[in-house]
Fold each of these.
Amino acid sequence: MIQRRKSKQIEIGGVKIGADAPISVQSMTNTDTRDVKSTLKQINNMAEYGCELVRLAILNDDAAQAVKEIKKLSPIPLIADIHFDYRLAIKCIENGIDALRINPGNIGKEENIKKVVSLAKTNNIPIRIGINGGSLEKDIEAMNIPLHEKMVMSALRHVKILEDNDFDKIKISLKSSDVMTTIQAYREISEKVEYPLHLGVTEAGTYTGGIIKSAVGLGTLLAEGIGDTIRVSLTDSPVEEVKAGFSILKALGLRQKGINFVSCPTCGRTQINLIKLAKEVEKRLEGFDKPLTIAVMGCAVNGPGEAKHADYGIAGGINEGYIFKKGQIIKKVCEDKLLDEFVNLIQTENV
């Protein structure tokens, strides 16, 4: 059982983050925010796969204005991603945004910071301080200390600005494209503040490499009890980010949303096209929301026993397969009907 770090709880559009709240999964649209129709279509698609928070890039005034229409129809809370321009933050708050991602030290004069913080406080809008290892303040970047220490220093500087303005609805992220730097930064900040932490390895890469980096980085921290919300950053569809995020949490027993797939790596005893079958089963049950464990095993000799913890499973034979529940074989089916019968059984018994 993972003992989670004690953290302060905040709320973003009804989603609780920190303390004993479930670790939430979020992503970011890659559409042009000004294109309301396309952006909403992508948000709805992400939400279908369980995404709980979504971030929008706010590049200009038109994007900030589009927030008003997107907010009306979005099924999940919206976070505005803003760099430097405090006026965009104000406009997003006025248009109904649920949270901001903005570093207060980057928006100029103290009076501008006060305007944003005051409005955020009035409207109960949390602010995420988002530190990126590749874009630190020049004075901190010039210091002869490890990168993760620079990142923590930068985060604490921004935290102080908000706290000096009597604001504490804060969430923090410290992302680097280097996995170990990311891990070290989060470990250090977790001991210095009680604010909730948003985990991510930034610029992790394309699908396979990005998932591996994220699984190692996020998985290490989550196993240590660090982290309150996550994003798996991939050069891919945001839906893939969401699916990967839940997979990491399920692997650690931190969330049980959807199917937990188990399949053996195949061996010389396998007499069925197990690789194809496993992929087909996973695809057919991809959107199934019940927290079930489903196993696809290579042979009837060891399969049911090795996967007896599974709610449902298949064990391959010669041109046939066996369907089992909790390790007990309940049916023998010819190979060409095995997939349909297996999926139908699961769906019928778990409506």
Amino acid sequence: MSDVQEAVAAVESDGPTAPAPLLSLRGVSKSFGPVRALTKVDLDVPAGQVTALAGDNGAGKSTLIKTVSGLWEPDEGDILWDGRHVRMHGPRDAEALGITTIYQDLALCDNLDIVQNMFLGHERLRRGLLDEGSMERSARETLESLHVTTVRSVRQQVGSLSGGQRQSVAVAKAVMSRSRLLIMDEPTAALGVAQTTMVLELITRLARQGIGVIVISHNLNDVFEVADRIAVLYLGGLVAVVPKEEFDRASIVEYMTTGTLERQPGRETGGTPANAGGRN
């Protein structure tokens, strides 16, 4: 066999190369004095999917998202973006990559209207003046693209909006800034049933548009509603990352409280978590 034939055979046997995950963590650890908040965490976050991050209080969820958001640098390990090693020295570095985090307080100004909030710090100018018309159109088009129809006017003050509407504005702001990974911390906390449904539908639409989404939530009903994959943290270690279909609620609770899974998942799940019984 010639060298060319050998090369072709090698390519054919290897098959097409799978695209790199949008975000990858490899052996990421973080300590605060004697407290080990994260231990050797390996996690892939694909584009176009919702990854739910579950864990009890103190499991390391907040530390993980703040590390991915650039607030804290890991003590050990690597962060890869589109398969390339990156080092973030602050939130601006994360935002430049396309990573946006929406915390529970949403970081919105109640005394400003929707347009002003969506363009805060990134106002458009025309001949030295604010280009109000352009900003209004972009804000309206972004909300419409996300099927947000409950907002009366883009000139409505954010302080007058419901919790679900405020969450929608925060998401639309991230989408307009061309975010590729959106991290949402307890997005349905303190929301009513109708508002929760609206926010969950919004998360699903984001994934369908190719945006990677990480959702941190204590509400397992919400997790099962929107997640494609569920990652469970226990005492700073990642103890399971599997498709939602391979989990049931009892399995998640057991992982969250013990870090292992002694029982078999219920028949509704159709399988056993791939890496049960140990930390990555």
Amino acid sequence: MTVNTFIAEFFYCIIGVIFILVGLKTLRDSNLKTRITTALFWFILAFTFIVGPHIPYWITGLCVIAIAVLTAFNRVHQSASDVPSAEATRTNANKMGYKVFIPALSLALVAVLAATFLPFGANNAIGISAAVALIVAFIVTKAPAKSAVTDGSRLMDNVGTVGILPQLLAALGALFTAAGVGTVIAKGVSAIIPDGARLIAVAVYCIGMALFTIIMGNGFAAFSVITVGIGIPFLIMQGANPVVVGALGLTAGYCGTLLTPMAANFNIMPAALLETKDKYVIIKAQAPVAIAMLVIHIILMYILAF
């Protein structure tokens, strides 16, 4: 095991411990009717994160199926949490002021510096920056150490099952690529796009990126599939600049990110954290901008790529 792998597994184990804490928190809520199945969801998820590399793949697959079944049958719910009153929250906010942003900014800054100057890889840089940001948060807020456990588990419980969508969607993107979905799309699109119809090809590519991102919830996963199926054969092979096609194609996919609940970390998690009455309110607010930006992407790619 390399040093990078060891560090990555260490951070995965920490994530698993957080899931265990959420499960224990759920078990203590005697008023929650689904506390057993909800706790089971978090314990199974913790199991895959902690011992996943040391067990056969088929066991991990069964674990994924199990948590999917629990979620599909609505057996996973948020447990009760001890949250500060509105008055206490307002008082602490006034006391902290803009200093509350220091941990978040340090998270981003340390992540960039660690990824650039440390030989541990970009993924481990995120874990390192999270540890540093936690220390900074303690220094800034002077909160007790137990807050990392209580508030961390409460936050994860509040986010709920959508918190694991990024991992599942990334795996789904790799599966689609390996299964040759891009080739199938290319065959279907060839019957739609006439020879030499650059504008139609650009529109199909950009809209396809947005639509597939809406399905996948992940612009990177959609990029590999749609670029292989449409971007390369119908644009780049027809003389389009690959740099322009790649750059604008990926950001065209991000227009789809703004429109889908599958992009849980962008659209559903913030709604859960803000405790909005409508969990799709963020998507509804972003929709006009997303559609306008998609049209702009089509125009720019048509003008700049050829």
Amino acid sequence: MLPSKKPMYAYAKCIKESKRRKPMATMEIRKEREHEVADIISRMKEDAHSEIIKAIKSILVSQPRGTIQAPGLIDMLRYYPDSMGKYSRASIMMLSALASGADYEDCILPAAAIQLFEDFALVHDDIEDGSLLRRGRKTIHAEYGVSRAINAGDMLHSAVEGLLYRISKQENGDAIYKKFREIGSITSIGQDKDIYYTGRNALEATEKIYISIAADKTSAYSIYGPLQIGALIGSSGARELEALENIGLPAGIAFQINDDIKDTEGKVAGKDKYEDIRQGKATLMSINAYKNSEPDERAMMEHIYSKKPFDKDSADINYILGVIQKTGSIEYARRIKKEYEKSAVNALIGSRDIIPENHYSKALIELIGTLYVE
């Protein structure tokens, strides 16, 4: 079941009580609704995964008869999709759509497209970062080599386009298709900034630059993009889309900050520890530590961040962690995260007459809250 006591949900509950609405449903009814939501999400994952595999296979079977494939191609293309990520973005989209009155069947292709977009983007992202672990096992380029992995990512992108073409034929499909393309472009721009402000350049980043990276790279395709796509499936209008962006944008920034904090504290699951430091990523912790450290410490940080990822040893990692600890940079990042949490909650409060209130929207608020809880 979805957790029932998370930040945004707690605030939403206060809103509900303050308006003196109808008495809360009984515990039995709430549990029944929680089971219903959990069952729908579980069913969506299976149905969306099935559509993803169909989309991948369609790339191969649509080729002229007699086309020879390199060994292991289908296994490589299914490598990330079959590892079955959390489907959090697809779940956000699904609940947003259902809350807006959409039918379950109309959500499956968009859910598949969102999840496959994540899978193909991670193929390239892992290559760019030189990551060796993803979802608890070797990254695709570590398993199949960089060149084949890049090509596999391109092929998965083609499969996403196939799904989007089918979506464009659905009701309101043109608007949904355009939103997918918009979110994809914003995400790519954010990723490019993230790459530029890596290594020595990371220490030139400001808090404003970091927030813009988190907004574009994370918020767009992780929170408010799925929220808006779901709303479009439910035929919502511009007013609802704006309200969802106002909620999802700060929530996504809080999500990214929280993810960075977990990496700095070595609390990540399924990935290598301290990857942000090893890769030389710009985070609120590195920005604050560099700004508030002594001249000799800044010089050492510059030396370490100038190294290639695999040239950094444990002493380098520990040195950066020490400066971060000394400057109180994790606590600083937590304070900033809480500010964005509050912004998301305030946007939620301000949109209570715009966003439909039902058990799907309540479950959606809970799910978003789980993304930035440490």
